[in-house]
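User: Here's a chain of 270 residues. Predict its fold as tokens.
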Amino acid sequence: ACAVDTAWWDMTASAARMPLAAAWADDVALPVHVNAIVDAAETAEAAERARAAANAGFTSLKLKAGAGDPTDDETRVRVVREAVGGGVLLRLDANGAWTRDVAAAALVRLARYDIELVEQPLPPDDLPAMAELRRVSPIPLAADEAVTGEARAREILALGAADVLVLKLSRLGGPTAALQVAAAARETGAPCIVTTAFEAGPALAAALHLAAALPRSGPAHGLATGGLLERVLVAPWSDEDAPRLSPPAGPGLGVRLTGIDERDWRPLSA
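Assistant: Prediction complete.
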């Protein structure tokens, strides 16, 4: 669904000779502010990568949490905070791994390290628990895996289960649904963060266009993922990930497929 919807938007915007972002917003926010991903499991390596990202100009860093003992998360966050100082935002992603009690205790301990937000601290299907947790959390909470469409987003916002919504095109089914969710969030003043599921170039380009169409005052987006791929499969594209990115400037997605041998393509059966 995401591929078909993205292709439709690409054709529509290309026919109008405008980039996707311009088709979605009158005020396009360029360049797009993005966060760096610090995915090292070892604390010392995480601190080293975080310091390198900060030195490269990233002002927002994302660390994973919830994979083990919560005290290990706190240790890693403390060491990373010491490594980058106070001028860099830190955000955590627990991928729904915590229970309500574990999350409540962890958030209190982690708040001393000036955490920007925590993504999906609880399982995505337990919105009432997320709402209860948000009411006592000293750190803003973001719904990630829980955001599966406009109706679900409105439910999250109505329950007060999140401060921020995370938009993944592949989970939502494409740009149309993502734009609907963003509009619902705008009604309540909740910001949105566009991230990827480590897709290749076509979806990454679409995500960059979406981020550029959102208000520029929101949090950094999770789109510095092209460098984690062996090939992005589109051109033009830069292999370098930077603190600020711009979507391709051409009509539609602004990219063309490359590095694919067309002889490997086969027609779909009827």
